[in-house]
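[step 3/7] fold_predict: job queued, chain A
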Amino acid sequence: MTPSADEGSPDAALASAVVRVAGTDGTVGGVGFLIAPDLVITCAHVVRDALGPPREHTGAPAGELTLDRPLAGPGRAAAEVAHWAPPRPDRTGDIAVLRLREPLPGAVPLAMADAGSLWGHPVRVLGLTRAFPDGVWHAGRLRGESAENRVRLSAADRRGGPLEHGFSGGPVWDEQAGAVVGMVVVAEFSGAPQSFAIPTESLVSEIPALAGVLRPASPFRGLDTFREPDADGYFGRDAEAEDIAGLLGRGDLPGVALTGPSGCGKSSLALAGVAPRLRAEGYEVLVLRADGDTPPRTALAAELLRLAGPGPHGADRGAALRGLEEELNRHGLVGAARRALGDPAGRYLLVLDQAEQLPAVPEAAGLLFPDPHPEALRVLLTLRADFLEAAPSHPLLGPALGRATVRPLLPMTRAQLSEVILRPLDRTPAVSYDPGLVHRVLDDAGAEPGALPRLGFVLERLWDERAAGRLRFTSYEELGGVSGALGRHAEAAWRACAGPADREEALRLLTGLLRLPPGGQAPLRTTLTRAEAGETRWRIARALAERRILVLGGGPERGPTVELAHEALIDAWPALARQAAVRESPGASPPRRGEDPARERRLRQRALAVLGALLVIAAVASSLLYLATTDPARELRGAGRSAVGQPVSRTATMPLKTPT
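[step 4/7] structure written:
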């Protein structure tokens, strides 16, 4: 039997993954199919028939099985039983999971899905029967659940009969779902052959270890920032992460300021790229995400309380926070952290995420950036590029930049973006992209300023809409691609959640989620408490949060809060872009329909990025010229190194000093 020439067709997918299960003496028990590169699922009675123990035996049989793919050419693999659910008198169980000692060359696991209600779904199954030992297809329909949580499998027409034993253990391909929705089990009840399928959800409930294989979670983060627990799924910035971690751990200056336009991935690089590397070197990591409202001392006390473990609640928590604030006052950050965490020799990395939102509280400078700076403290801050010019005069950022190496984060190369797109699927080998889709996404993402959040969003949506184990080209087009998917989704959510009666309150909600700080060139997202929003706006906020446009949060100090899921929405979401334009020019009239304030802002961001790159080049060239003209010996010592004494990398280096 020759599979379809279309490599994405169900015939080709099934031919690649269906295996024949036999004992070492060649006795064929039935079929199975790959659900992971090293795992095959089949019926327990298929394994017994292949190995030959009595049917009354309930334990997993010992012995080696031989697997081959009769529809996909030569190649064999040895396997043994890894999980076992024997057939039971109540007609449940009858599941075996086999582990291959070596993967079958070229085999691709099948994607499985929970299809919900299966009644009437057209399906196809593949069997290896005595009459057709090389394979035969059967078309049928699913006709409802049995009392044993199985689904009856009937022939597609009245002339077809029940399946034979050569189909047991085979995959049930649902034409409507575009994926495998269960496994065939052929049973003889009261002498009458009947055909059933064990649905995916029943396979998982019988063998919970299959949950991660048969129901893989999305490997994409969408608009969410990568954080330290996500480090093993963070791709594309290894070189930059190593570079910045080296500067923090062994550089001359105690801090690094990671700067770039919104949407270039600064926060993810800091939290999922750099922080795990410093932790591996013995640093405890403290994260302070500025929100423009919470005093840094209070935020640090809350972070120390979190790191110290399960703590008090209510009034006791308030007292504990006040006590930690006093410790910070008396002993500084390192001293207070060592006392709170019980490590008298502790070293600390303080990550100031979105530092442009730090409130202008001069007295906090000595806490976050003490002078002299303790050797046990390293500071990594992320800063939007459009705040770089005003930062030296900021009472907190000025001292930070005076003792930090500034690293402008360059856009990802095509090779790096390819890692972002492809490597998350390494853990889900049953899922792949339609041919040509990756190249199309790379072309689109490379032309977009601040592309990473838009790319993450469209990849997550493609995962949600995958079919037959494929992320589909047609879905990508319907979603709007990298440039349009986020905006289309946000506008659809806006129409659904902000009806005519709520429109004015909804617009006030959007305005409350933005603020324009001093020295900024564009609005920032900010948190809004439930009390500040009021109940009508809070109801709208919750509805938008259900559609992943807003994010609900909060804590004991401020109560429930809401904020934008990502700053990329300010440009991508037309309704929000119009409110942002009003925020930027409070006295101006709202933009007319057809005007594009987001486009104007993107053009400004591009200009700022070019200006930043020119400043970096000028700073490096000036430093090299100074070295060359004032101290020849020093020039020779610094050959091959950047202006701050570090190897040149894809993150340019620019030390800044505060005005004197």
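[step 5/7] annotate
Residues 86 and 451 are 51 Å apart (CA to CA).
DSSP finds 22 helices and 25 strands in the chain.
exit 0
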